[in-house]
Amino acid sequence: MANLNTDAIKRRTYDAIVIGSGISGGWAAKELTGKGLKTLVLERGREVKHVVDYPTAQLHPWELPNRGQMRSGVNEANPVVSKCYAFGEATEQFFVKDAEHPYVQEKPFDWIRGYQTGGKSLLWARQTQRWSKYDFEGPARDGFAVEWPISYDDLAPWYSYVEKFAGISGNRDGVAALPDGEFLPPHPMNCVEQYFSESMAKTFGGARPIIIGRCAHITQPQPIHLEQGRSKCAHRTLCERGCPLGGYFSSNASTLPWAAKTGKMTLRPHSVVHSIIYDEKKQKAVGVRVIDSNTKETEEFYAKIIFVNAAALNSNLILLNSTSNRFPNGLGNDNGLLGKYIAFHNYRATINANYEGYLDKTTEGRRPNSAYIPRFRNLLKQETDFLRGYASGFSANRGQRDDRNGWGEDLKTGILNPKLNDFWSVGSHMMGETIPKESNYVALDKDQRDPWGIPQLRISVDYDENDVKMTKDFFEQLTEMYTKAGFTNIRTNDSNRTPGLDIHEMGGVRMGKDPKTSLLNEWNQLHHCKNVFVTDGACMTSTATQNPSLTYMAFTARAADYAVKQLKAKNL
Amino acid sequence: MNRRQIVKGMAATMGGLLVLPAWASAWNTASLQGFQSKLSGLEEALLAEIVETIIPETDTPGAKKLEVHRFVEKIITDCYDQKSRTTFAKGLTRVASMATQSYAKPFLSCTPAQRLEVLTTMSKSADADEQNFIRLARSLTIRGYLSSEYVMTKLMGYEMAPGRYLGCVPVKA
Ligand SMILES: Cc1cc2nc3c(=O)[nH]c(=O)nc-3n(C[C@H](O)[C@H](O)[C@H](O)COP(=O)(O)OP(=O)(O)OC[C@H]3O[C@@H](n4cnc5c(N)ncnc54)[C@H](O)[C@@H]3O)c2cc1C
Ligand code: SF4
């Protein structure tokens, strides 16, 4: 009997467990297996295999059952997820539907999730920028949150490391606010974007650069990409359906198959992690408790190290739910700050206008990218009555219009012969840094449970005065820039959209130097449970203005390297 | 050539521009294939002539030949609420009765000019339901026509994988 038991335990024991197979979990799997660790990847959703499980990827518009329109009732039944621009007839299979995975909105919060192998890496918009030293120095300089325990220089080599493998296209712009990376050739800006860039360079003497976006698309495959079985992006711009060419980075196309090739990875779908098991005698985590979503049976798996990569808020949930005598309030939560200091990006503001130049020019083909305005506000020093600043997108399009007024042959001629607009449409959206605050938090609901018996996550996150002031500044500054560039018909819009829809939720398990005021140390280890690493958005001490996923990748690769070294040195 | 092969082929071209693959010339209404019309034969014929009146055959196929009426029925059934579905069903009946009132014959036996007259009269009707029906029928016909394989590939230069973005090209005269 005792023997059987040890055997059973042995069969369930790995060197490492990774919770979640999305962008960060995929990287953890790749790094840990690459260093020889037998790794179990636990994924709550179903398996989605590259190419074969992308049912809509190659459908032409006329082949979609409703040519792109959602069936009646679906949006009404899904008030949260249907707000996401990427949710539609061709992509709905990769999104969590509202009713399937309930949570409690203490304040309105649009929690957009993808529960499957690859997580949200199938769905993301693939914008990838490095943080700069100004971002890491932010909390210390401006006196909010806590000081980051690492600097840009600590992360820079890891940015390089993940960029080379993932494939990031971009231009070497030499912009201090947005360090250059290991770039594949950039997409071009179009004439009006180029014009705006040059016009602003003159107006602001280089203080407000406008550059082409940096994005995870293979514009020129390198041997490392071909080895992954990925090829050049063909500008289909159907990415959210899954790309059969592997033209953009997803866990499914890149890190997971790479990890599988080592023979060291076991990927277990339908495995909802309930909690991490803490052993009081060993004073460390020994494994995880899983609920099989098919059988609803509870099972346990064991390992020496555990990477928590369930995406920011779910990682908070798992740690909060990992209670023991030693940690009655959640794993590593001696200071009571677990789940607090949640922050996000403020995307509520947009500005649009027309430009009547370059009317003899247009564009051809499609581009899965746009131009970008790095943060210029409060960059080198505090200059406004709000903290931090915002980055913005910028894009120009030569739209066209067809004449739909007639009937019969007239109508036919009208719609088959669209005419270019006599202006270019230009627009920007705001990506504002929000300040992490104790009052923005997630917690376990005391009463409500999900279908697996796990407490539902209660989310309480809101804007504050700083966000309102920053939004106003965005309108003022962008209006000034647009005006100086000669754009006309300038329209601003504050959508007041609910936090969450930015899909850049961060924090709750923040990094810091002091165990009294943070949960994780400079290596993403729980201060009080060193063999548990959290390397997704939950670890973020502040949010900066960059799209965050590239930074999660770099943190994950760096932490995995450290974890394996510590393991080998028998420190874990 | 099946799709998997196409993708393999696309991947193999790697560097260069991608050529429009073989499917572009093959006629296909795949997504409508499984759709069972709930209209009677007569109603279906009526709807076909309505979409054909809106976008008729010239030197290129009209909406009827491109099965736009089947698309219109499917999308009304799948994607619109009960109210719009009722408006639509009532509108069809109204087209039929207008034809008999004005020309003492069924819509199907009217000349193209008479059919057009029926639809344009309804589009200016004082009855909101009649106007809404025409607005819906017109916009769905246009959508179904423009998103049909024939129009996209033969007339509008559709490319699934353009393989390029050029940011500043001269406008063709
Ligand atoms: C439409 C859209 C556009 C976006 N655009 C960008 C962009 O341009 N740039 C950018 O940087 N980011 C973008 N993002 C955000 C980006 O997708 C996320 O930052 C990124 O996926 C986070 O990686 P992750 O590993 O933390 O989480 P995910 O990729 O979400 O993966 C988490 C995984 O964990 C699994 N999981 C959760 N709970 C459990 C549990 N209890 N047990 C087991 N498994 C669990 C989930 O099923 C999921 O597979 C976008 C997101 C969306 C949806
Ligand atoms: S734009 Fe590129 S990466 Fe996206 S689906 Fe198309 S080919 Fe794939």
TrEMBL record, chain A:
InterPro entries: FAD/NAD-bd_sf, GMC_OxRdtase_N, GMC_OxRtase_C, P2Ox-like. Keywords: FAD, Flavoprotein, Oxidoreductase. Residues 436-555 form the Glucose-methanol-choline oxidoreductase C-terminal domain. GO terms for molecular function: flavin adenine dinucleotide binding; oxidoreductase activity, acting on CH-OH group of donors. It comes from the Bacteria. Its cofactor is FAD. Residues 228-324 form the Glucose-methanol-choline oxidoreductase N-terminal domain. Belongs to the GMC oxidoreductase family. This is FAD dependent oxidoreductase.
Automatic annotation (TrEMBL), chain B:
InterPro entries: Gluconate_2DH_su3. Keywords: Signal. It holds the Pfam family Gluconate_2-dh3. Residues 1-24 form the signal peptide. This is Twin-arginine translocation pathway signal. It comes from Haliscomenobacter hydrossis (strain ATCC 27775 / DSM 1100 / LMG 10767 / O).
